[in-house]
Amino acid sequence: MIRLYTTVLFLLLPYVIFHLLWRGRRQPEYLRHWGERFGRYHGVRSLRPVIWLHAVSVGETRAAATLVKALQVRYPEHQILLTHMTPTGRETGEQLFGREVLRCYLPYDYPFAVRRFLDYFRPELGLLLETEIWPNLIQSCQASHVPLCLVNARLSEKSARRYARFSRLAAESLQRMSLIAAQTEDDARRLVELGATRVSVMGNLKFDIAPSAELLELGQVLLRRFDTGRRIFLAASTREGEEEKILAAVEEAAIPGLLTVIVPRHPQRFEAVAHLLEQRGIRYQRRSLDAPVAMETVVVLGDSMGEMFAYYAACDVAFIGGSLLPFGGQNLIEACAVGKPVILGPHTWNFSEAADLALEAGAAVRVESEAALVRELRSLLKDAERCRHMGQAGLEFSRHHQGATKRVMDLLEQVGLPQLHSSPD
């Protein structure tokens, strides 16, 4: 099966190159570091032994923050290498860790490319975050005696059905892992059904992420910019097509003095959302201008990176994007962690257990349609006491589910990695 998979990959090579060029038209960063995509690295060498973490994009990179810090404390003589697949993930890694970690792209799953990657960095341990099953990479790690673990692993029903079409290949790859630490019991069950062994449940690293004092202070700065006399509705991490629905709901809700803050999930969409606002004749300001918001302004376009905690800290109510349309939803935990009431759409399979638990705890409400969103906006923004209760429930919910970082660190110790020597502390 792996030979057939690799043959198909080589047949797709022209498409891979075309895809990079196409993405580069909208996001020029995709045109940089091409060599790394195929295992060619220059100037990223470490003189210390390497622990390698792979975080595909922004969400995974943020989730990795507490794990990176824990590894640095436990194994201070090792260098952390963080790999990504997207420019925004790489940029987020730079914002979070600066020069404390090495950063590069993980190569595409071609045998020659992953061998070059392993030969160049010689990692003593590899950690893949969330849903990363790359057969050639996994096989090459095993051949090179590099223990490879899948941590913070999640597998939705939809993804499980997709992998099941190639059940033999998926099973062989999963069984080569040294350890699999799943976010939830359901994730663990689906991984076992695909053939995985050595599966444990660790919880979700995203519960361990705490807002920094700097971001909370920035939230207060934003609040002063937004004008504290106005109610503030945040539409966070919105995806294609959702902004139109959110703007229509806000218009229908007709809440006097409401300021809506829209933060698109992907920075390459900032201009598209700005164009949408201009087309609809909506007065808006860009966050990037860092100016006080005029009373005539209806929408603030959150065209900045790395400030999501600050946006949550500055709002009264937060809608979590990717959930109104079938994208699977984005991370709701950050909003709960700063004590803000959360509105979810019907599509939350990417965070299914966290969403269900937040709903059960009273930290979130779910809307099934635009009309329901209108009703919830009116209800929440006119009921400060209800908002306060939901925010407190969110704080308690997020605190209750912390501890995934410690659990995964304990699991790594149990793997029995002979090369790694932890600090006596």
* Domains, number: 2
* CATH fold group of the largest domain: Rossmann fold
Count of strand segments: 14
Strand order of the largest sheet: 3-2-1-4-5-6-7
Helicity level = 40-55%
CATH top level of the largest domain? Alpha Beta
Shape: globular
Number of helices: 20
Radius of gyration: 22 Å
Q: Report the biggest beta sheet as strand number plus sense, adding barrel if it closes.
A: 7 strands, parallel
- The low-confidence runs, each spanning 5 or more residues with pLDDT under 50, are none
**Derived structural class:** alpha/beta
Into which percentage range does the β-strand content fall?
15-25%
Global mean pLDDT: 93
What does this 3D model show about the protein?
The protein has helices spanning about 1-10, 15-25, 35, 60-65, 65-75, 85-95, 110-120, 135-145, 155-165, 165-175, 185-195, 215-225, 240-255, 270-280, 310-315, 335, 350-360, 370-380, 385-400, 405-415, and strands at about 50-55, 80-85, 100-105, 125-130, 150-155, 180, 200, 230-240, 260-265, 285, 300, 315-320, 340-345, 365. The strands form 2 sheets. A 7-stranded parallel β-sheet has the order 3-2-1-4-5-6-7, with helices on both faces. The model has no long low-confidence stretch (mean pLDDT about 95). It is of the alpha/beta class. The chain has 2 domains: about 1-205 and about 405-415, Rossmann fold (3-Layer(aba) Sandwich), CATH 3.40.50; about 215-400, Glycogen Phosphorylase B (Rossmann fold).
